[in-house]
Specification:
Oligomer: heterodimer
Radius of gyration of chain B: 20 Å
Helix content of chain A: 25-40%
Distance between the termini of chain A: 27 Å
Shape of chain A: globular
Number of helices of chain A: 11
CATH superfamily of the largest domain in chain A: von Willebrand factor, type A domain
CATH topology of the largest domain in chain A: Rossmann fold
CATH architecture of the largest domain in chain A: 3-Layer(aba) Sandwich
Distance between the termini of chain B: 48 Å
Helix content of chain B: 10-25%
Number of domains of chain A: 3
Largest sheet of chain A: 7 strands, mixed
Strand content of chain B: 15-25%
CATH class of the largest domain in chain A: Alpha Beta
Number of helices of chain B: 7
CATH topology of the largest domain in chain B: Phosphatase 2c, domain 1
Strand content of chain A: 25-35%
Chain lengths: 426, 361
């Protein structure tokens, strides 16, 4: 049985008249077990492989896609519902052959592997249609925990602009989807929109030979998620305003707009499936002011599974006249505020660069270089160094590089939301 | 309320209904109906604390207090029993310990014991040092330990004031050491933090028409007779005393932030925790007042305190808790910048009086 804990990091002391309360809530899950085998219903997995014409240019892409799909099938545990979809101008069933899902067994695994070997490239990239097909297949098995991986190498062509947003609004809450773009001809924003709506990740596969290991890791992670669906339930006092709720580790994901009002003062935020892992959430609430000496709750933060509270922690607000207390910023809050700014500066900086506004790009990417350096975010520092020459990390002085590999820029963009964890005091 | 819902007013740890003291922090949790307090004749002992159980009505917005101790509507914290409580071990002895207005927690503590007949009482007040976390627990443990020891000491048949003073000074010396040990024990229980919890200490004994006081720090004891000369029995162990002794004018000294820096305290980091002692014979009716600086800050000169107590006692019907509450409320109305504790004993001279007068211990 999974065990959740929720721990609050904050400076609860507010100066006279102050209203904004910030806290980082660290949620940890232990004993999650295996997807589909932990009493939360069966698990279902769909692999969506782009087989548009461009996947054959070079042929290495479709070859890598076949191999990666086979490895993924091998990682899906017995008893899991599964299907493989070939995505081009339409969504086409690869396995099973009829529109439905199969239970994973030795036999179906062998059959599916064989069918994947026959994947051939041809046609357009209609991702909206692929998402719609996956939604329909998951709907047939009616199980709690549904996960898909989507691989593409290009931008959407061959379907109306409205197809993807419509497909996403129908898919929201039905399954989670991790997205991978191979090469450099796909659009980061398109895949990010899918990952954001469907509580998944997005990443770049710069070289075809990296695909296999990535698919293997993705399915393994998915199979280790024994908790199908946990939610963050947040109570905030009457007259308050929840300014934002964002996941800040392991990556920055803004959950504010995903709130569902479940009571007059209570909202729920989806967090998807959980394995044995820890995620941090930055919560900001604007509360009505109270006199100095008052102690109030700014939020009750609960983790719920099927409406049952499995962890709870309290975010407090205590008004004080002692400036020594009120001027301190909690280290976790400070760190993750910086990490969110880092992601924002990278994304906006790259957008400015793409629009030809080199001045803005230089300022923003310089700011990013400084934050990444100061917070010890080495991965992001390394990715940034492929796009800018860092003149002085301490002041955030950078120069845009002349010749940047497009995949390096896309890698920086997709991984801009990855955060480093703050070292917690013992 | 069942036993499982009971919580220690000092530290919040679960307690059983039969507990007199919290296992976790040593705070007094007995409420009259609990097991007999070994410390004294407790027939008249009552402790009054506010209702803070889940389901209580929020005093701020009228919402419901949830089981986490906060209002379900506005989030206001339900007042903790530790925030303000009163004790009255006998009709002539009582006190109020209050969090004040500005501080978020009550780090003052008080422990009282008394015979119903007016012959013997113990009044202990400790003021936790705010800059050291968990000093509320150290203060409670220290006050409780001293009171428990002193009220267990047999009251001897003594001959003369000198013998009485000598006997109780010796007992107070042991009690101070016991109180310091309790404060150090709280630090140990917390894993010996770098800044260990600490507190001031003042303990007064009324026995055989003599008041004997031990103190460490700047919590005070006063003898305030209805007529005749009042006396501040204690001299603050603080830089404030040093400033005044150096000739600094009072107003200027009190404005100095160092005025309240104490030079003696109880706790693991105490360099000097031996108490100073003083005695006072009771030869006329009056009040013994033991208090924290949350009260005397607003009446730091003896004459001000005399006038204040005279004013408030006029409407207190001779009841020590009523008078203590009036003093505490007055300090809160004046700003309540610190925790406020006032403990009082109504003292009357014996019919036959020894004539030895006042002497210092």
């Amino acid at each position: 049985m999974a065990e959740f804990t929720a721990e609050v990091f904050q400076n609860e002391f507010l100066s006279e008249g102050a209203t904004d309360v910030h806290a980082v809530v660290s949620v940890t899950c232990k004993g999650a077990g295996t997807a589909g085998q932990s009493g939360h219903g069966e698990a279902a997995e769909i692999i969506i492989v782009d087989t548009s014409g461009s996947m054959d240019m070079p042929t290495a892409k479709i070859v890598a896609a076949r191999r990666a799909a086979k490895v993924a099938i091998g990682e899906i545990v017995d008893g899991t519902w599964f299907a493989v979809i070939s995505g081009h101008s339409v969504a086409q069933m690869v396995y099973p052959s009829h529109p439905g899902m199969a239970k994973m067994t030795d036999v179906t695994r062998r059959e599916a592997t064989h069918m994947v070997d026959n994947l051939i490239a041809g046609g357009a990239t209609a991702i909206g249609a692929w998402i719609a097909a996956a939604t329909e297949l998951f709907g047939q098995v009616q199980t709690a925990q549904c996960h898909a991986i989507l691989l593409t190498d290009g931008k959407i062509e061959g379907e109306p602009h409205t197809a993807l947003p419509e497909a996403l609004s129908a898919a929201r809450g039905k399954f989670q989807c991790d997205c991978r773009g191979i090469g450099s001809d796909w659009v980061v924003d398109e895949l990010r929109a899918i990952a954001d709506a469907l509580l998944g990740t997005v990443d770049i596969i710069a070289k075809p030979d990296q695909l296999e290991a990535d698919f293997e890791a993705m399915i393994r992670t998915s199979m280790s998620r024994g908790v199908a669906d946990a939610r963050l339930r947040i109570w905030a006092p009457q007259g308050s305003e929840v300014l934002f709720v964002r996941q800040v580790a392991p990556s920055v994901e803004d959950l504010t707009a995903k709130a569902a009002q479940v009571g007059p003062l209570i909202r729920e935020y989806p967090t998807g499936a959980w394995s044995d892992e820890s995620r941090d959430y930055h919560i900001a609430v604007r509360v009505p002011v109270a006199p100095v000496g008052n102690e109030r709750l700014a939020a009750r933060v609960e983790v719920t599974i099927n409406d049952e509270v499995v962890a709870k922690s309290l975010v407090k607000a205590t008004w004080s006249a002692d400036a020594d207390l009120t001027t301190r910023i909690d280290p976790a809050v400070a760190h993750y505020t910086g990490q969110a700014q880092l992601a924002d500066a990278i994304q906006k900086g790259l957008a400015a660069k793409a629009a030809g506004d080199d001045r803005t790009a230089t300022v923003l990417l310089g700011e990013a270089a400084k934050i990444a350096h100061d917070s010890g975010n080495e991965d992001t520092t390394r990715l940034l160094a492929k796009v800018v020459d860092v003149v002085d990390a301490d002041t955030g002085t950078v120069r845009l590089k002349g010749n940047v590999d497009r995949t390096d820029e896309m890698a920086l963009d997709t991984r801009s939301t990855k955060t480093t964890r703050i070292r917690k005091e013992p | 309320m069942t036993d499982t819902e009971l919580r220690c007013p000092a530290c919040g740890a679960p307690i059983a209904g039969t507990d007199t003291f919290c296992e976790a922090c040593g705070a007094h949790v007995g409420a009259g109906e609990a097991a007999p307090d070994p410390s004294a004749d407790t027939a008249a002992k009552t402790t009054v604390v506010p209702d803070t159980s889940a389901g209580a009505v929020c005093e701020h917005c009228g919402g419901e207090i949830l089981d986490d101790g906060f209002c379900g509507t506005c989030g206001q914290k339900a007042p903790s029993p530790r925030d303000r409580w009163s004790e009255q071990p006998a009709p002539w002895v009582g006190g109020v310990c209050d969090k004040g207005v500005v501080h978020p927690a009550n780090e003052d503590a008080m422990a009282l014991a008394a015979d119903p007949d007016g012959g013997f009482a113990v009044l202990v007040v400790c003021d936790g040092v705010t800059s050291a976390p968990h000093s509320d627990r150290a203060a409670m443990a220290a006050a409780r330990a001293a009171c428990s020891l002193l009220s267990g000491v047999p009251v001897p048949v003594t001959h003369g004031v000198a013998a009485t003073i000598s006997y109780w000074t010796s007992a107070l010396e042991k009690a101070t050491s016991e109180a310091n040990g309790a404060a150090v024990g709280v630090a140990h229980a917390l894993g010996d933090p770098a800044e260990p919890p600490s507190c001031t200490f003042v303990a007064a004994i009324v026995a055989d028409a003599v008041i004997t006081v031990a103190w460490c720090g700047d919590s005070r004891a006063y003898w305030l007779p209805d007529a005749g000369d009042a006396r501040q029995l204690t001299v603050d162990h603080s830089l404030g005393t040093a400033l005044l002794a150096a000739g600094e004018p009072r107003e200027q000294a009190e404005a100095d932030p160092a005025f309240h820096t104490i030079t003696r305290w109880l706790g693991a980091d105490s360099v000097e925790h031996s108490a100073e002692f003083v005695s006072q014979t009771i030869d006329t009716p009056g009040w013994l007042l033991v208090c924290s600086d949350g009260l005397w800050n607003y009446a730091s000169v003896l004459e001000e305190m005399v006038a204040l107590v005279a004013d408030k006692s006029a409407t207190s019907n001779g009841d020590p808790v009523q008078l203590a509450a009036a003093l505490v409320d007055w300090a809160n109305a004046a700003g309540g910048h610190d925790n406020v504790t006032a403990a009082l004993a109504r003292c009357n001279p014996p019919v036959l009086l020894h004539g030895e007068g006042t002497s210092r211990g």
